[in-house]
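Convert to structure. Protein one:
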Amino acid sequence: MGMSGPSGGGSMMSEINVTPFVDVMLVLLIIFMVTAPMMTTGVELDLPRAEAAPLTGSDDQLILSITAAEEYYIGDRVFSFDDMLAKLTVIAKENPEQPVFVRADGTLPYERVLQLLAVAKNAGITKVGLVTQPGPVTGPPEED
């Protein structure tokens, strides 16, 4: 732990003290554990379930979302339904190969999802994927 002086035989002994390193790592671990849930950006949705293999994506994904209250999002910015066509047209012109993923709340009428898909197609977007919650498919709700 220490170094021996000249009277200790002439050889120096040194050890690496890892305690500060461990302390820093534990502090960083706590910081990441606290901030990680806050780093997930997006719109809170109750996605429908489907058994399908996950698609690999890149960081430049464009995600369109519709909430149960029929609020429309591109990424994490809210837009009106009418503004979606203009914004998506600009995006499609800048990058025609841009893949788009649609996230829709599972309680929405299917018509709303189709309307958003039609807006994306009319804007010139050709690659569209639907986002679901992984897990077993549940049947339709039972009527009483």
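Protein two, convert as well:
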Amino acid sequence: MIKKTKKDSKGAVLLIAILVSGVTLAVGFGVYNRTYKELLFASFWKQTQIAFSAADAGLECALYWDTNGGSPICFGSAISGWTPGTAGSFSAPVSSGCVSVIITKVGVSPSIVTTIESRGYNTCDATNLRRVERGLGVQY
């Protein structure tokens, strides 16, 4: 019978330690990768909501002033380049993004069809690679 010594079992402990370390490292990397992707996804949806809110604000502003008339004031400043009741367009910064609105009118009075298209952006920088655009429209 062969008798095992302490010297023979040292390699087994090292092998088990390497295997456990490898599995732990793989699991840790997987958790990190999943967490990173979730953070990117959450950030994208936040930027999408900013762009959508900007589009909604621009649409509501144009709709209000087009139906009520007067000097349009949106987002705390006067809107230039568009007279309510007529076709035109305007762009304006909103609280955390930008909006671009196009108003078209087709037909003759009293059957004029008005279309308002509002495009909201999460940033005013058109060269930003992470710029998100969302659009809304209404026709009446």
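DSSP finds one helix and six strands in the chain. The beta strands are 73-74, 77-78, 88-94, 97-106, 113-121, 133-139.
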